[in-house]
Task: inverse folding
């Protein structure tokens, strides 16, 4: 697997770099970004936090707006930010170009329905292909944690819950907690997976938490003034599901905060410290 | 003077807000942004750092990408970010739409030449109109400092040097230090001010520093791997001019850093602490 460097910039003594590669899972060329803290070297590989972004984002939104590198540099954690969907010629999009489905909206699932299934295999890309690539090319250990925002919070929770042997800890900002039960999720899951809602449960954090055995530690932050809270996000259902199975979910409701990266930057240091406690065990 | 609130978001316990108003200096509608730290209130007004952005920027670039609010919240400093030029219908732009002149490139001067002089009065806007508006509408004191990046570093230095009674301290990232002597500056100054280069000196930091009496404290950070360093920025000339007049300029060359907001976010905390030392005297 080869990768091509597209950009690099020094930040807080470490390096932010963007790469392009051909994804076999997604059948297209993909871009991702990595932040390597100053201490990362072949002799001193560092653990990795995977960050999954929300609707409309690329690898750039978190890296430019979250203000995460100061803490990542200090804690010695690499951060990898993939794109949010397959891209490029031949990759189908929402017929009306809507922001909540298709390009920029892969929902971190493996699509089973045509025409989506040829490219929209974001679950396999994030769980298998990308970590393999990262661990082959960069000075990182096999210690991984996963976090994300909104659609990416949904991705982090579902991927972490389904792969507890591959990650140390999970966190999310404003996750789509119960996609089976909200407009964004229902639109995406019906197109990517078809109308049999039994198939949707494997990508629904509330459903996964209900039947969870021993889950990884989970931290969730949610702004109380988030305009999507009631209709799309529903974190209270996460908490109820976690309680029913005795899972380890800490939900923090944050008064006055909205759905933006201003919210994320206010609490990202807490998330990095949370993950560091498990990544560097 | 009335202002209209366009957006607000809580961040690090304070508030980021965008406003629109009719500028009499610029003869058009303008947008600016303010960050108010948590402690700011009518009973506890806070000092203000004015941030001037570089070519192509609006009020949003610094506010979204600099990661400045954590330190501003802690230090109790408001930050005001104006746009970089007049905007809107009737405001002339570079005939070829170039990024380095016209819209997004006001260079913080008062234009004397037609057709630019009707709107391009950014110097007066930043020095007089904007602080008056801010001090009328927000819980801030009259303590001001000024900073900026690239074209905005040039703006911060020239405005601070020419108005030492109005500011407490000056800082800059990667400033255009000697605009009379670089392509960006020569293009802008010749159009805005005409071909008499004597007129340019009032907006040239090197010229101002040569003849400075007692200047404010000045901190400048410059990335050594900045692609614009040799041709456009020339901070070594700042230092030479400061030495000739005994002015207080601290220039820090930062190995490996480029011209981007990744560089700015790496050192913005130092600048905020630098200004806080003078603003909160």
Result:
């Amino acid at each position: 697997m080869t990768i091509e460097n597209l950009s690099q910039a020094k930040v807080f003594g470490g390096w932010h770099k963007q790469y392009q590669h051909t994804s076999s899972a997604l059948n297209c060329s993909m871009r991702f970004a990595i932040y390597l803290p100053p201490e990362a070297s072949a002799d001193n590989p560092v653990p990795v936090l995977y960050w999954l972004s929300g609707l409309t984002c690329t690898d750039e939104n978190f890296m430019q707006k979250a203000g995460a590198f100061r803490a990542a540099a200090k804690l010695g954690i690499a951060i990898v930010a993939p794109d949010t969907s397959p891209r490029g010629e031949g990759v189908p999009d929402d017929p009306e170009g809507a922001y909540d489905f298709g390009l920029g909206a892969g929902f971190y699932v493996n699509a089973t329905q045509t025409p989506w299934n040829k490219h929209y295999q974001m679950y396999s890309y994030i769980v298998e292909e990308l970590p393999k690539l990262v661990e082959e090319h960069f000075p990182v250990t096999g210690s991984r944690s996963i976090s994300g925002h909104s659609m990416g919070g949904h991705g982090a929770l579902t991927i972490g819950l389904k792969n507890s042997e591959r990650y140390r800890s999970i966190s999310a900002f404003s996750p789509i907690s119960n996609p089976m039960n909200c407009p964004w999720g229902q639109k995406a899951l019906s197109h990517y997976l078809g109308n049999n809602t039994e198939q949707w449960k494997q990508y629904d954090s509330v459903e996964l938490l209900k039947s969870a055995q021993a889950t990884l530690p989970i931290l969730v932050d949610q702004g109380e003034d988030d305009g999507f809270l009631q209709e799309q996000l529903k974190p209270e259902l996460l908490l109820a599901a976690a309680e029913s199975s005795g899972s380890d979910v800490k939900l923090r409701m944050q008064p006055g905060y909205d759905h933006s990266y201003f919210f994320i930057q206010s609490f990202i240091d807490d998330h990095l410290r949370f993950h560091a406690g498990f990544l560097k065990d």
